[in-house]
Amino acid sequence: MKMRTVKLSVRYGDKVAVDDVSLDVRENEALALIGPSGCGKSTFLRSLNRMNDTVPEAHVTGQVELDGQPIYGPDVDPVLVRRRVGMVFQRSNPFPKSIFENVAYGLRVAGMAKRADLADRVERALRHAALWDEVKDRLHESGTGLSGGQQQRLCIARALAVDPEVLLMDEPASALDPIATAKIEELVATLRTSLTIVIVTHNMQQAARVSQRTAFFYLGRLVEIGDTRDIFTRPVERETEDYVTGRFG
Predict the structure, then answer these.
(1) What span, in angstroms and rounded, lies between the C-alpha atoms of 80 and 15?
(2) Which end of the chain has fewer CB atoms surrounding its CB within 10 Å, N or C?
């Protein structure tokens, strides 16, 4: 088991966004989180690497474990957690730096200084993000000059550069065209062989294509989790069936 949550709840002030969720995330799987807007899936995702720590009114209870160790607690450094559990956001957010420096950023923060070492790791991350062949002759151009799909893969490369064990993806293709979306989906399938992926998506066809298991959230609750094929063809819960068949959501 790579990660697990135990009775995880998240509140923003008095509003409960995630309510008592316990689930396991298996090693080398892609787990899709689906559900209508505002159901808590993105808040849940952000809890897996303590991104909610940056929201002043957020209050987290319960537990999140990575390799059996709790990631919340006064003695745990959230920066180290985020190095092990990377994140890619809905909209690509490259830094106003060169392509090379975008990918090298986390490595420099971690203390890597030798140019040769940085160059090796940057190339490896760009290859893993299926971007190297498109940018290898443009490494010193601005990352913001890339196309939308390339920018998102650059952000994936930036996350991969520090060798995370888990990659969180919050609707990574929602702002992309179909061709760029297909490249992101192919990338998820490739990356899953070497790390664990948790992906939030509104696109149920995408969830069916890229994930091995799917979790359905509704009103902050985890309604059902299971093999993706079962969730979409023979769900146990009526709420899940209503959602995947388009009766609501």
Answers:
(1) 29
(2) N
